[in-house]
Design a protein that fits this description.
This protein is 0% helix and 50% strand. It contains no helices and 5 strands. The chain has a 3-stranded antiparallel beta sheet with strand order 3-4-5, with no helix packed on it.
């Protein structure tokens, strides 16, 4: 039997609508949390979740 786990929001820690298995691989996945309404880019490899921190876009100066 494979192990399943709920994918938790890295911002608020609540369950999202996704389950992952131990053989799930996600790269640059936009995870949306229905409770806190945040979208976060994540990588998943063997149930280990890592958050991708991208710098904010800067406005162009004229």
């Amino acid at each position: 039997m494979r192990e399943y786990e709920w994918l938790l929001c890295p911002v608020c820690g609540n369950k999202t609508r996704l389950k992952i298995r131990e053989d799930t691989i996600l790269k640059n996945f936009p995870l949306f949390c229905p409770k806190c309404k945040h979208e976060t880019l994540i990588n998943v490899l063997k149930i280990n979740v890592s958050v991708i921190n991208e710098p904010d876009a800067k406005t162009q100066s004229r």
